Amino acid sequence: MLDTILRLVKASGADAWEVTESVTEGWEFYFIKHRLDQNRAKKTTHTTVRLFRTLSDGKGIGSASEEIPPTETEEETEKRIRELMKRASYAENPYYTLRKKDGRTQEAIAELPDVKKMAGDFLETMREIPENEVTDLNSYEIFADVSRIRFLNSEGIDLTYVRPSSMLEVVVNARNKEHEIELYRIYRSGGCDRDSIRKALAETMQFGRDRLEAVPMPKLVSSPVVFSTEETREIGSFFINRMLASYKVRGYSDWEIGKPVFDGRMETPVTVEALKELPNSSGNAAYDAEGAPVRDAVLIDRGVPKQFVGDRQFSCYLGLEDSFIPGNFRISGGLCDAGELRTGDFLEAVEFSDFQVDPLSGNLGGEIRLAYWHHDGIVTPVTGGSISGSMLSLAPAMKMSKELRQYNNMELPAVIRLEQVSVTGITQI
Asked: How much is the mean pLDDT over the chain?
């Protein structure tokens, strides 16, 4: 099928093209408690074509893309490609070029990890999770995949790379005589990291037990807030996004290379790195989706922007010929031990109905399902209320721990503390 698609694409009259074929082998398991409800093995092929047309006398370029179903006839595929050629002229952008073949885009990776073993490791790990009469596993689903991805373009790139990815969805129950709650978790990774899963689920079960004992959130007006769970990803992404070429070109980021962020007022100058690999990350790959070799790169060095990265289109607009789309990131620069960030009166928020940091405005907020209110040396589990603020005003005084914690494709400070966060509570202190 791929040979037919390539032949039709080359004959389409497109000024440039990209074709990506992803062949994925996977195992899936669905459990209710520890009873297997269903499972399946799969092997799927997804082929995506993107065609480009030069417009406005070479000053503009348009593109259109679509997945080609593997069951299509040659006539159906040819018709679809003709439609793509028409659509490519509808959305014009300033002209840019595709990535060209160079000496670093020759490697072909053919060996696939053992997806059956990956799935088996998850099964064994979940059977070993300690449970009791208060907290147990309501249900869980395991998805273990390995993809062999082949990317080709009209500039001569033809490369193959492998990407393993797994997902574990878990519902944890916690109950007492009065009520029962559910905590939903989703863990993404490359393969199965048994220790990480055990620790993460042990933490979740502890949160469930504490939630049963939680009292309404006091009316605090504002408070230091400590983040020590996956919400740190949202905070870290605020810094990452501002170093993306697309954000810079669109005017979403006013950060400049060599100029300290926040005019050098950061109490803890942050360092942001793009990484080719992180242990067991689903973001590990030799190349990005456009055929660029992935590498390690420092984007921000102790509060000073060093380089923008991103997709080919926006990188070209910034004049970045050696850019790429990172798969992994590390945020670091913390000056304190985690314990030093847990001092005085503060709120440690660990469970939200939702927590977001707006990538454009920097506004943050979330409704709290579980937090720990530290006051006068007493720690009280609390629930309800919400927090809000803006990274634009909170980031300069942000403190981070030296210790790091990994969440799939991001390694971040294990503890992040923001001062003077607005807190909407329920009861008077």
From this structure: 94
